[in-house]
Amino acid sequence: MIRRDLLKAAAGAVVVARPGQPDPAWQGWRVDGARANRWLTELARFGANPGGGVSRVGFSDADIEARRWLMGVMREVGLSPAVDPAGNILAKIDGSEPGLKPLLFGSHIDSVLNGGNYDGDVGSLGAIDVMATLLTKRYRNRHPFWVTIWADEESGLTGSRGFLGEISQEELGRVRPSDTVPLGELIGRVGGDPAAMATYRHEPGSIAGYVELHIEQGGTLDQARIDIGVVEGIVGIVSFEVTISGFANHAGTTPMPGRRNALTAASELVLAVDRIVNRHPGRQVGTVGRLDVKPGARNVIPGEVRLSIELRDLDMAKLDRLWREIKAAGDAIMSRRQTAWEASPRPTNQAAKSDPKVRATIAAATRSLGLSQRVLPSGAGHDAQDLARIGPMGMIFVPSVGGISHAPQEFTKPADVTNGINVLLQTILRLDQA
User: Fold this and answer.
1) Contact of 66 with 109, CB cutoff 8 Å
2) pLDDT value for 38
3) What are the tens digits of pLDDT across the range 385-432?
4) For 291-321, how does the pLDDT look when each residue is reduced to its tens digit (9 = 90+)?
5) Angle of helix 121-136 versus helix 3-10 axis, rounded to 10
């Protein structure tokens, strides 16, 4: 449906709100859920894998094609999208009251390799559906409204970090391990302007708020048959790249006593991570997700092992305590196994609590729709945790069937998608009028 059709459908049927006097019928407004679910199906074509799901990695050809399609959808509903210097797609509607700061809502559309069709997509298309609904209703928003589609979320929140001015010129010139050209060139490919990023930033206090709709990516809501998750916060992530050095030697001629086997030391370390994280009460998690063994021959004692250690929790102090315990256990293991180790920290994702007022607004919107809800943390990282550093942040979760995400089997029921977008609509209306 193009913009003139949307406006024609609305003409004569809606009382237009004056600044400070919202349309009394707004609490009954609902989105066109079928439209958003149809968009989800169409978006899934870009980067589609033969076995299901998508590989639409940020800045890839599939991502570029999907972004072009998405901007076309935005134009069809009456928005005017543009790409900011960091490569984010922004569509802005001016507010009716001068001096009010913008309300932002959106997500991302890039995926991991062999990912699913809902992670990020639900929030992105949901934001467009909300804006299309408000345009149809001829709603006069008090605050400026910005629909935000963040670039390259999966590779490290690239777009939202760039929005905050936190990508250095050195990082723009660096080639990341998964890429073949510098990050700045990749941002330029999608219409960004890396040269302008040195002065492009949004400071703390520059926005009125940010709300992101997202699939849960876990099984809590699905298992409990709860409609909506009200996110209390996004976990912090502390991670390390670990190298364990032993001594490679012949597997048949080297006696067991005195071997400096890097893999047996690594195995003990993996179990230590699991044991230490499990013995503390709470929701913290610890993962060793990668193990590279060298030389990797069946008849050679492993001389080097590289592995990753990742810890997640809402409490950054707890993560620090866990790491100190793991470090002490690792030192003891290496001494006993006659090996050495080095742990290099990766950039830390700081935990971000959602804003209590935004959280309460989401809860009120959910109740107004007659939907069940539960407060829960996000175990995954999101662009919202960056936005929380410049303004009030909130997140809305909808169920992931079976708790599956980052996989072709990722699925959220169409009715749950529609529920989530309606909660986003009612949340944005309440925040705008507060």
Assistant:
1) yes
2) 98
3) 999 999 999 999 999 999 999 999 999 999 999 999 999 999 999 999
4) 999 999 999 999 999 999 999 999 999 999 9
5) 50
Distance CA 165, CA 157 (A): 12
- Of 216, 233, 213, the closest CA to residue 422 belongs to 213
Could you tell me the two tokens for 172? 């723009």
**Helix 414-433 vs helix 356-368: angle between axes, to the nearest 10 degrees?**
120
**Over 50: is that where the pLDDT of 6 sits?**
no
What phi, psi does 315 have (nearest 5°)? -100, 110
- Rounded to an integer, what distance in angstroms lies between the CA atom of residue 110 and that of residue 91? 18
**Using one digit for the tens of pLDDT, what is the confidence trace for 67-108?**
999 999 999 999 999 999 999 999 999 999 999 999 999 999
Place of tokens 């990722």: 410
Per-residue pLDDT, 347: 76
| Helices 33-43 & 61-76 angle (0-180, nearest 10) | 150
Q: Which of 172, 147, 145 is nearest to 161 (CA)?
A: 172
Q: Residues 31, 386, 392, CA angle at the centre, nearest 5°?
A: 60
Q: CA–CA separation, 321 vs 134, rounded Å?
A: 48
- Rounded CA separation 312/318 (Å): 9
How far is the C-alpha of 177 from the C-alpha of 185, rounded, in Å? Answer: 15
User: What residue type is assigned to position 429 of the chain?
Assistant: L
Whether omega for the bond prior to residue 295 falls within 30 degrees of 0, making it cis, is yes
244 has which bridge partners?
305, 341
101: Cα separation from own chain's centroid: 24
Whether residue 341 is predicted with pLDDT greater than 90 in this model: the reply is yes
Cα 192 versus chain centre, distance: 20
- Tokens 């196994």 correspond to what residue? 337
C-alpha angle 378/285/309, rounded to 5°? 115
Q: Which of 426, 431, 408, 253 is nearest to 358 (CA)?
A: 431
For residues 252, 254, 258, 264, the Cα torsion angle rounded to the nearest 10 degrees is -30
